[in-house]
Amino acid sequence: MLRRQMSTTVKAINYPQEFVKFLNASHSPYHAVHNIKAHLKEHGFSELNERDAWNGKLSQMGKYFVTRNNSSIIAFAIGGKWSPGNAIAITGAHTDSPTLRIKPLSKRTSEKYTQVGIECYGGGIWHSWFDSDLAIAGRVLVSDKKTGNIISRLVDLKKPLLKIPTLAIHLDREVNQKFEFNKESQLLPVAGLSKEETNTKDKGCDHNEKMSEEQFSSIKSIIERHHERLLELVAEELSIDSVDSIEDFELILYDNNPSCLGGLDDEFVFSGRLDNLTSCFTSMHGLSLAADVNIENESGIRLMACFDHEEIGSASAQGADSNFLPNILERLTSLRCTEDDVTKPLAKSLILESSSKSFFLSSDVAHAVHPNYASKYESQHKPLMGKGPVIKVNANQRYMTNSPGLVLLKKIADKAQVPLQFFVAANDSPCGSTIGPILASKTGIRTVDIGNPILSMHSIRETGGSADIELQIKLFKEFFENYSSLESKIIV
To answer: What CDD domains has UniProt attached to this entry (predicted)?
Structure first.
């Protein structure tokens, strides 16, 4: 009965519309994690902190999540029959996307224009950023004058503030043959017309002048490093009395044009950050839908992980190449081990046992076939939007899919009635990679790479299939619910 009710719930939600709302509220990794947290809390998940001991805080049939740097998140539901050493069903995605980020010293002026210094993050299609209306979002560190604490605040200036203008064709007749530009000097956004700003010499930043301990600052003040008007807009958005309360920020640029459904029959999603908020959204819903289904008889754990910094290699404190997931797995597989009970295996062996029984669905978007560049694709592997998730295969292990994993995923997809497709890069074409190889080599957990197909990957504006959103949610829901009963039946 419960299973039938859950299935009805899936159909009742317009997932493409919900996805568009999620995209329009998630203009930075910090906002994405904030919105995932809000969704999980609405579905009964409790927040944990890495700084705390977890002994006594977790229970069978409990639902929890933990964040790191507010840009990565792991959430899980513990089965009613969970025991350390049992299997864990894991989906993995990433919260970051190629973008332009404001530099620590961003104040620029040229030819009476106010400009903002930016840094390229990830492997973006940077020419797609020209002539777009650019807004700014991210997090701001603010000093609380009452407590003396410095707190992190989210900010989203939802208005067109910046523009990277192209050069008129009259001044570059070859622009349509080959559009080339210098990323340091010609990918520089215009923010306004130059105005005289407040003199900041009296703010204790002239290092040639002897200062008291209270006046001394090891780096330039925030007003010296960034345009004062930009800081004022941030302060207004956060209802801060003075820009002096802003200690620092991590701000990114994004296309101010809202995410939306498009196409003759709304078959497309037009948006930035489909890579890879698509998988963050689908795994979030897959887990929240599955978290309570037959959980009392579940012997394993159902877990989703969304990491920052995939677009730059994942080697960070909160990336997939960090100790974030291994640490959480170690905590989960050692909570019930006691030093005085010598009849039980050591905690270290329990994490190894769980890893050997677990499975990781590494989910990142895939390449849909491009109708204007079909020759760039392997002739028999041309994924279509609207036809379901894509299994990604690469003999050189840029993707982790192998036959046992593929068979297991097929069993799950058959049960969920979700069609699957294949992608293999052509032999004369480069092949990207995912967090799959990183975590597979780090943990030894069996892994399959899968993702929804999109066009214009890494552009400021990508295109995905609206029907694929619900299909991937159904697949992940089925994976969480049934992996424990399937894993022991595929013997390698």
So the answer is: M18_DAP
Task: Say what the pLDDT of residue 271 is.
Answer: 98
Q: Amino acid letter at 38?
A: A
Which of 93, 78, 193, 177 is closest to 450 using CA atoms? 93
Q: How far is Cα 39 from Cα 33, in angstroms, rounded to an integer?
A: 10
- Whether domain 99-255 has CATH 3.40.50.720: the reply is no
In the predicted model, is pLDDT for residue 3 greater than 80?
Answer: no
Superfamily grouping for domain 2-97+272-489 = Zn peptidases (3.40.630.10)
- Between CA 125 and CA 132 the distance in angstroms is 13
Domain ranges of the chain: 2-97+272-489, 99-255
pLDDT averaged over the chain?
92
Separation between Cα atoms, residue 263 and residue 483, nearest integer Å: 36
User: Rounded to an integer, what distance in angstroms lies between the CA atom of residue 286 and that of residue 360?
Assistant: 14
Residue 337 confidence (pLDDT) above 80: no
CA distances to 13, 311, 389, 450, 462 from 466, rounded to whole Å, are 13, 24, 12, 17, 12
Q: Report pTM.
A: 0.92
User: How many residues are listed for the chain in this entry?
Assistant: 492
